[in-house]
Amino acid sequence: MENWELVAPCHFGMEAVLKREIIDLGYDIIKAEDGKITFLGDAEAVAISNIFLRTTERILLKIGSFHATTFDELFEKTKALPWENFIPKDGRFWVTKATSVKSKLFSTSDIQSIMKKAMVERMKAKYHLEHFPEDGASFPVRVTLMKDEVTVCLDTSGASLHKRGYRLATVKAPITETLAAAIILFTPWKKDRILVDPFCGSGTFAIEAAMIGANIAPGMNRSFTAEEWTHLIPKKIWYDAITEAEDSVIRDLDMDIQGYDIDPSAIKAAMENARNAGVDHLIHFQQRDVNALSHRKKYGFLITNPPYGSRLEPEGELSALYRQIGEAYRKLDSWSMYLITAYENAEKYLGKKADKNRKIYNGMMKTYLYQYLGPKPPKKHTEDNR
Question: Which CATH number fits domain 177-215+250-384: 2.120.10.30, 3.40.50.300, 3.40.50.1970, 3.40.50.150?
Fold first, then answer.
């Protein structure tokens, strides 16, 4: 099978986690950049990466790249790309998104329009058609311009991969599934260790942890745009990938994952989402204030996304809330805490400087993942040590 360059975008700051995921699937990394990893893969890799990768937003099939500083140059170089190798004569094609950063061409609507015209001209010449029915499979194109370098890709995923299909019930300001999974995979947490989210909201951290522990592929229960591309990716490849995912699920499993929230509607939403994900038997959700946070076991993990100013709370309430989090954490003997927030005074009111912190962009919002590292477990748990 032919190999393609596949581009996997991710949250800024989580590139190393995604890179490790791709390597674990057996694919070779070509390039690691801010917010994306490029790797080499064939038709099977498109299906496997869409179904199994937890931390990427989508899988893009790279058509080509070039330098362009004028719209004439953009048109001609887009027209020179081998579109007919990917899009059949009945394909429905359009530039679904254009992004321009530090480039002379910055009008995204003009970029989209000119590139569509260039694609049509190329296809007219290759297929000897004046008009295209565009009543077949969909081929959405995504283009990025970075310092006048144009990268052109087909979107194999469709809806963003954070849409696993389980989060039908939601609450205000949820964390995305892909970012939650990336944070969990960034930590040394393993499925036989305790995990508690005291601000669980719609349950995303707890559900993603349970799916990781049970080895449930995140894309098992959704569809992808490239499933329609049968001339490039035979249906059997998708069937085989789903079968592999189903066979990999660990069904006889016992985990200690807990999600708390003071809002009863959040707990209701979290429980519904966990049922949809098939992991409700692995998680205990309960309405509980952070002040009541306690656990008799040691070496657990707090992984959480508490409220922060621009999201939900005024400053006075935030400072009090983060004091409560700090007090609750200090009572948990030997635990680690990973807390993501945009609240600038988080460490001050938590009462302790983090051992480490990492800048992560949650959309356009700059956040920090504060890492408080507890001691290693006893030697009998050596395989789970950091």
Answer: 3.40.50.150
